[in-house]
Structure formats: structure tokens, C-alpha cells
Fold this sequence. Notes:
This protein is α/β, with parallel strands linked by helices. 35% of the residues lie in helices and 11% in strands. The chain is built from 20 helices and 18 strands. The protein has helices at 31-46, 72-80, 83-88, 105-115, 120-127, 142-157, 189-195, 198-214, 245-262, 292-298, 300-308, 335-345, 371-378, 396-408, 414-430, 451-462, 495-503, 520-530, 556-566, 599-609, and strands spanning 91-94, 131-134, 166-169, 171-173, 176-177, 219-220, 268-271, 313-316, 351-353, 383-384, 466-470, 482-488, 507-513, 535-540, 571-575, 590-593, 623-624, 632-634. The chain has a 6-stranded mixed β-sheet, sandwiched between helices. A 5-stranded parallel β-sheet has the order 6-3-2-1-10. It has a 3-stranded parallel β-sheet with strand order 7-8-9. β8, α12 (335-345) and β9 form a beta-alpha-beta unit. The longest helix has 18 residues, at 245-262. 55% of the residues are buried. The model is unreliable at 1-61 (pLDDT under 50).
Amino acid sequence: MHLPRTHRPPRPPARGHRTGSPGTRRPGTGPARRAAAGLAAAALAATALTVPALTAPAAHAQATGPDAGKDPRLLRLLRSMSLQDKAAQLFVLQVYGKSADTTDTADVAANRKLYGVDNAAQIVARYHPGGFIYYANNVTDPRQVAGLSNGIQRAAMAQPHRVPETIATDQEGGIVARIQPPATQSPGSMALAAGRSTGDARALARITGQELRAIGVNQDYAPDADVNVNPANPVIGVRSFGSDPSLVSSMVTAQIRGYRSGGVTATAKHFPGHGDTTTDSHTGVPRIGHTRAQWEQLDLPPFRAAIAAGVESIMTAHIIVPALDPSEDPATLSKPILTGILRDQLHYRGVIVTDALDMQGVRDKYGDERIPVLALKAGADVLLKPPADASGNGVFARQLAAVVDAVKTGEISEQRLDASVYRVLALKQKRGLFRDPYADTARIGGTVGTRAHLAAAQRAADRTTTLVKNDAGLLPLKAGPRKVLVAGWATASSTAGLAAGIAERGAATTVRSTGLSPTQAQIDDAVAAASGQDLVVAVTNRAWDVSTEPGHQGPGQANLVKALVATGRPVVVIAVRDPYDIAYFPEAATYLATYSYTAEAQRSAVKTLFGEIDPQGTLPVAIPTRDDPGTALYPFGHGLTYHH
């Protein structure tokens, strides 16, 4: 499989060169696309003497034993790889920079700190990792992301084994979206569930998948399959479809099918279920107290449904579930959970990817160099985002060496390692990455953020806004001149977006942005600004998080709403994240939930305020009273309309 030393990466074909063969996807017409497709074809052709092209008809030689039923071409590729190359295929890395060959001073310094090299292309050349995950620091606009993706894939195809990269991101929609506008912004999970439309869930996942694939991303770490039964959950909340396992299951299934039809790998997360915790696994070790029977009733159904729908990737949770593993190892490192339950009992045969290994939930019990070894022994396949040590130096190289050493010493058998590598390679083949790993830059304008996609997202958002409380009969408003104060938590698409939308309907608006934790001075300023206003719109974001402990928001938002209500001005409260906020200021007479603060969600809220659309959303969770979590202030399925 190794090529002669004189081999060099093939040059892209001359402008106008055509590639492809009958039955393959028709390439775009742009020069970047033609060059990229030619590079992929030439790279595969260069290895044809030793490994048949992975897009050719499958060979029919029957393998026996543990290789029975596996693709012989992938097996030959696997056997040609060194032990270190195989171990590296299991890692998905974070990287800094907006291009694969970045020379930006800050990005280079960050990459050197983590990996000892300058950029993504050099990481590929030195380590041959299995993939990369994009964060906001990797993103400027669609064409730039496509260029980054293509640069990474060119670097991969210039290596001796020509193994394309998994390129992944977290594009759940709503509050978790690494790719921002002009890409289409899907309503988040809980918003879609409030709309109760599996058709919307599937359509928006397909759109997200198509847009991600257009910029070179081939795996989405979505949908979230957690059942959020704990209103105080600090890390899941609106990322979940809701508190009812049946509703969550149906929405998860719809999104898996949508992502697949959009051309990306879906990832159901976070197994065995992260919906009932008060600890954020980024900063601590959550402990789930469900009995085995409770877990089977509440947490399991969406994952079982995902497996039945053919989900190709499942992400683990860094949570302790004593009922499933009394050793109290986090699920990511638990053989009873990943192998005993997920593999053996649920018969899942796809890729198991860990949640990020830099999260505290997986780092407390064992040292960083043991974690990847223990994760593989537990049954995981992909090791996501190795951490940095206390000095900020990356530990990936040490983690990679630890996996290699574990195989050499027999702690992990090479057969076990090969099983994970084969799954990774097979998924890349299934996504068509061996055939063509590149983004077609000529298609970006006709795919990403198109008028049709944006309209579909807005239509879906319009079906999600939930009118929870309208006791004063204040809504719907009539358009026309009035003075309106918009106060509270803010982003460009929340407070400012609401104010702009209200102003478009004839109002003179004043804005007071007070953040997540308003001070008393900010509250007093907002109250003063409310004087003489005809209407006050208060915006909240997790106002239920009233704890004064470090890491919490405190009671400022709830106090702000109470103070505004006390002015006697008509007040409409709009919760732009978790819907639970109303329990902390029940004196507010008018309350809507949008579940996210995207521009689409806020446009929908304004249209709902003015009766341009009838509120259609119904609660996908119960809102409990503040002092008794077992008592519902507003039950699951509650939602008011203007027309009966």
C-alpha cells in the first residue's frame, strides 16, 4: 500500500477536465470542484495496483471468521496500515484556523500548543487522524468553511493511504449551531417538538445536512436523544425534544432520516441519557439516579428508536449511572453500558463516538492518558477532542501513544482495535468520501441559505411559538403607534430583533439590555425606562437559574421581571430559551416561549404578538411550580391560541 518514495501528490487536472463515471454524482461546473474531483480520482488511481478503488463494484470473495461479511477492499486497506495509523484513525481533533494551511499567528500558536505543528494540514501529515471537529473559531462564511474542508481533505489525500477525513460539527439547531447565517438556522429540538411536526423535523434536518455537506462537513453530532425530565438540567434543556419518551423518539427518528437524506452522518446523543441531571458534564461529573426500570422507561426509548431507524453513530455521555454500572465509571468508560447494553442487548453495530474528552465528566477518575484506552476497552470507536493539560499543552500525542502501547502490551487486542477502525472506514465509505471527499464550491450559492431553505425554517419556527399565559387578554396586539420598552437578555436576534420587529408595526421602541445576571442598578434603570411606556416586553434566558452559587446566573432576571410587573405597565414576557422561567415570576400575566433566540424564532414571536399568526406551539415539557417539582404549573401539551 505504501507508494514509492518518489511519489508526489497528484496535481489537479487542467481547467475543463471532466471526472467521474457512470453512476457517480454529477460534479459541479466550477473550477474548484473540477480540480478537487480530479485530485480525488487521481489519488485513488495511484493506489489501484494495491487497493482496488473503493467505488468499484464490491469483490465477492467471501471472508471467513471475524471478517465475514466485511468489504475485502476495506480489509486490505486496514491491513496495510501501521498500528499507529490505525490508532490515529480513531481520533477526531479540534484545530485552530480558518484554512488548512493557516499562518495566522494566534492560530499557529494554539495549534503548536496542542499538537506541536502549525495547522490542520501539518496535523494530517504528522499524525493521520481520523477527523476534525469544527467550532465557531473555524467559521467565517460558507465558502471559507468549504475551503478549510477541502484543504484538510487535500492534505489527507496526499498521504500514502489516501484515507479521507471525517469532518464533523455540532449543528443541532437553535442554541447550538456552529455554522451561523447565511446558513439556514433550524429551530432547536424543543422548538420543533413544540410544533409537534415530524415533517418539519425531518425537512429541517435534511436542509441542515445538505448545507453542511455543501461546505465539506460530513457528520453532524445531532440529534439530541436525551429526554429532559429535569427542569434544572444545566446542559441539555432545550437541546432535548422534551420530557416525553414517545415524542422524543418520533422526533429523533425523523431527524436521523432527514440528516441521512441530506448526505451527512447523524449522531444520536448522549447515551445512555443525559436528561435528568443537575450537573453540567463539561464542568463536573453528573450522576443519574434512575433505577434500571426507570431508565428503560424514560431514557432508553429514543436510543432504541434511533437504532431501529438505522442511526450510524451514537455519542456517549460522561455520566455515572449506578443502576447500569455499579462501578460508577462514567458511561464513556463503562463496558457494561457500551458493550453490555448498547452492543450486546440493543444490537447496535454502528460507530460509538465519545463525547469530548476535554470535559470534566470523563477526566475526574482517571488520568488523561488512560481515558482513551479505557474508552476503547469499554466499546467506544471514536475518541473526540483530546484535552490539554493544566499548562495548556495538548495530550493528544500521549493519548495516541497510550492506545498504541495498550495494543503492543496486549491490554487491547489488535483485533479489537481493527474492529473500531473498520467501522470508521466503512462509515467514510458509506458517506462516499473515498469517491469524492471534497465540497463543491460551485454549489454553495444554490444550497446554503437559499430562499427556499430560509422560508422552510421560518415556516417551521412559526409553528413552534407557544403562548403559555394570556390572563390579561393583552394579546394579540394591534399594530399602530405606541411606546414600547424591550428589556432583558439580549443578542442581535433577541432583544434588538424583537424591538426592530415591533417598531416595524408602528411602535416607538426603547431597549434596555441587562444580560444574564442583571444588577440592581440595571433593574432600576429598566424600571425607570418603563415609566410612560404603553407596553413592556421582557426577554428572559434561563431565568429559573436563580442560584447564587458560582457558575449560576442568580435571581437577577426574575427580579427584573417582578420589578417591571410592579410598575403597573402591561408586561409581556418572552422566554427565549428554557420555557420553565414563568415559575419564578408567576405574577406576570402574559408569557410566551420560543425555545431559542434565532432570528426566525424572534420573527415568529413578533408575528404572534400581533396576531399575524395564531400561536400553534404546545409545551413539549411540563413546567413545574417553583417550590414543588412534582406539581405542574402548566402541563405537558399546554398551549393557548387566539381562535377557538
